[in-house]
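hi! just following up on the protien thing from before. the input was this:
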Amino acid sequence: MFRIVIKNALRHVLRSSLTILGIAIAVIAFCLLRTVVTVWYSGIEVSAANRLITRQAVSFIFPLPYAYRDQIGRVDGVEQVSFANWFGGTYIDKKQFFARLAVDHETFFDVYPEFLISPEELQAFKRERNACVVGEDLVKRYGFKNGDIIQIEGDIFPGQWQFVVRGVYRPREPAIDPSNFLFRWDYLDERLRQDSPTRAGYVGWYIVKTKDAAATAQVSQSIDNLFANSRAETKTETERQFQQGFIAAFSAVIDAMNFISFVIIGIIMLVLGNTMIMSSRERTREYAVLKTIGFSGRQLLIMIAGESLLIAALGGLLGLLATFPSITFFQALMPKGFFPVFFIEPITIVLAVTAAILVGVVAAIFPVHRTLRTKIVEGLRFIG
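and the predicted 3d structure came back as:
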């Protein structure tokens, strides 16, 4: 029976090949779109349950006084407080994008244990005022190594800034951004006190690690109550909510991509379904003859469904094999650093394989139904 299925699938080589190619292209497009969607949400998935972000209540772009740090640290339920500040700037040219952050060198790696750095490199970072730590992706991209001097032209904080690489961090999980550029906030603040004193003494946002993940709502409210009616009121939310706030700005685009990825499955179904219907119609007399010589309905079902599944499986397999180089090619076309992480999640592969199998089954339903319901006499009289 399996040999008959293969022979039927290869009876019209050109048509079968084009169908397999169409399924493969659809699988590549599905995997690519799903990967882009999942990458957008990767930052949310790795958010820590016991980490809060405290920012200016009016907008994220307004800073908070450094003096808030000790007050937040005394709130009941708070284990540790750190902070960061978006620096911006240009390295080489505007196309070289990666996050550049001024951070509290004493506590940042404590509240973000997913950034793995050796104790020796961390101590070197803490000792030197203009030291910086880079992600391993930046090392691959620019060849940075310990002792290198990195020069960045400031925009939010004008001027030429020089940093010395004293460490490289590795992400604990693939979904964690490996392309951050982290340097000491006190180096930034010290220079602001000389060049622009009114801007000194502020941080971008506070990162609050709580003692109990279940108490984050209570701690958030306590922090915001502490600074209510002050010159810089705060908004404290979980890290997950903070990340979702950024994603919300692109929600329409992401929803559209998510929708299109599933529309593609429908297109695969139509392509394969059309092929199977044409094949079944052309073989109406042939199936009638097979019934005459004793082929059962179950055997005919296996022949038709097997052919459909075989074509779908070949198309799906070809598509999956081509997906990995396609993902790499797509990432290379994007501006450097546009997607800090870009990888295919296992669920995407599972969905693609499931979709290919499902399409093979569904595409065989109508031809099987039509073949089994056609009487032998009608089949022998059929002129295709």
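The two ends are 25 Å apart (CA to CA).
The chain is about 55% helix and 15% strand.
cheers
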